[in-house]
Amino acid sequence: MSVPGLPRLESAGLDGWLVRLFDAIDEANLPWITALVRDCEAVFDNALVDLVPSYTTLLVIFDPMRMTPDEARARLAETLAALAPDDEAAAGEVQELPTWYHESVGPELPRLAERAGLDVAETIARHAEVTYRVYALGFAPGFAFMGSVDERLETPRLETPRKRVPAGSVGIAGRQTAAYPAVSPGGWNLIGRTAVRLFDRDRDGFSLLRVGDRVRFVPVSKEELVRRGADVTAMEDTR
């Protein structure tokens, strides 16, 4: 971390500090961010409310009844001074998401193939052959931003977002990919659907995916997805 002026602490109100570690997205950032998450959990203890990691930053939310902003800043400064990368993050847990790639549930699949100059089968193969890293969680509970997709599949978000995207929908935006954990609005290019439950209030930590995890999308048939309990109802255009 030799970028001038970094890391930097930025106020996020009376109960939060934003730690800016890097100025560019890079997989090499992950061991530092996961290490800071681990260390903050230890040093803030019962004063910690939430930690929100992203590609380059960590938002630390604390209980102002247990700690003042100045105290929180001092603890973060001490933590950063002793920070060392988390070697275990280089591996990360591998999660497999069985996915049915089809235009009935992934209406942008044919367009992405045409844009890339590929047939649909090769487009699916290129998306499925990559082991992705989870860089950040956000937008909705359990929504994991993963990268990076094959450069030929890079596609900007839809100009007009959908009002309703079914849970489990797999999409691409830029060089990121993700799966929607619940029904929500969204503007990603949809290419398929997974049966995996990405957010569960009965699961420890709620979210299946965590920053630093590795993820593979595994192509399966419609019948396999139905067997796993997924909704395979064809998409409706809700833009």
Descriptive key words:
alpha+beta; four-stranded antiparallel beta sheet; 5 helices; 21% helix; elongated; Allophanate hydrolase; Cyclophilin-like_dom_sf
Structure commentary:
- The protein has helices spanning 30-44, 69-81, 109-116, 120-128, 222-227, and strands spanning 8-11, 16-20, 48-53, 57-62, 94-100, 132-137, 144-147, 162-165, 169-173, 176-179, 184-186, 189-194, 214-219.
- With 239 residues, it is an alpha+beta fold.
- The strands form three sheets. It has a seven-stranded mixed beta barrel. The protein has a four-stranded antiparallel β-sheet with strand order 1-2-4-3, covered by helices on one side.
- A hairpin with a 6-residue loop joins strand 6 and strand 7.
- The longest helix has 15 residues, at 30-44.
- The mean pLDDT is 90.
- Residues 7-209 form the Carboxyltransferase domain.
- It comes from Halomonas salina.
- This is Allophanate hydrolase.
- Keywords: ATP-binding, Hydrolase, Nucleotide-binding.
